[in-house]
Amino acid sequence: MTGDPRWLPRFEAELVQLGLEPARARQLAGETAQQAAEFGAGTAELFGPAHLYARHLVAALSAPGDTAPRTETPPGLARGRVLLRLEGVGKRHRRTTVFADVDLTVRAGEVAAVVGANGCGKSTLLRICAGLSTPTTGTVHRTARVGYVPQDGGTAGWLTPAEHFTLFGAAARMAPRRARSTGEHLARRLAWRPDRARCAQHLSGGTRQKLNLVLGELHAPDLLLLDEPYQGFDQGTYVDFWQQVRAWRDSGRGVVVVTHLLHDLRHVDQVLDLSAAAPGPSTAPAGGGHGTGRRA
Ligand SMILES: Nc1ncnc2c1ncn2[C@@H]1O[C@H](COP(=O)(O)OP(=O)(O)OP(=O)(O)O)[C@@H](O)[C@H]1O
């Protein structure tokens, strides 16, 4: 049951209008109709006006092949706008200094990698970027719309993926059905079709990480903070992940990703090396971009 027969053609036409390939638009319309059938409700009732849902979905997906090259930058995502700025940031736990005097600027359309030895403070720095931990010194300015994907945790074992979508969507003021539908679309892009009955604790580690990733981007944030988000991914999903990072960058989002895999660095614009072994200031440009971080 999809309700108003004009809804799906309008939805598909709007997706094409927004730059999607016709075949991709048709596929999304098909998936959307299927979701409506599974919920046993009309599309308009579930998703609201077709053109608004199409815009929401394109913003949320920003996936490779989803968007044709844009002739203009979407409003609010102008390339170059500063999304994150750390100045002189340091963190101490009791008497132990984890890192000191870190500068980092991430603009819309940039990917920054945070690297360094185990225990040098990469996760701590990312939590500071997300506003989940307070720096001992320095200042942090960030955009309001941030998506954070922790290294582990972040999901509740007794909830299903759909329940996670609803819960995290509610925090971003998304209606439950829209949150579930967006979550399912994002999941499929990672080659994952969530099982409605299976709780997070019964998912494989890699699939739980996919859930984490979907939750981090459910509300279409401007800035994504990813803490080694691909652990447990198989090779195909890992490749898809970096394609997705490029798609986020191309759609004008900023990405900070913690990684210990040096071959990942070819995908990024700047590298912040937090390693205690690094002799002094150590942010370097990568792939022709610029870096502004340092560690004293
Ligand atoms: N709440 C805390 N209290 C005390 N020490 C902490 C706390 N959180 C982290 N640390 C310490 O801070 C240091 C940095 O930890 P963090 O997890 O940020 O490092 P990391 O670079 O992400 O490590 P890894 O590469 O192993 O993931 C570690 O020595 C850790 O033990």
TrEMBL record:
Every ABC transporter domain range: 84-296
PROSITE patterns: ABC_TRANSPORTER_2
Organism superkingdom: Bacteria
Start and end residues of each stretch annotated as Disordered: 276-296
InterPro entries (alphabetical): AAA+_ATPase, ABC_transporter-like_ATP-bd, P-loop_NTPase
Keyword hit for Ribonucleoprotein: no
Keyword vocabulary terms for this entry: ATP-binding, Nucleotide-binding
Low complexity: bias regions: 276-285
Pfam family, one: ABC_tran
Molecular function GO terms recorded: ATP binding
Start-end of Gly residues biased regions: 286-296
Full protein name: ATP-binding cassette domain-containing protein
Organism: Streptodolium elevatio
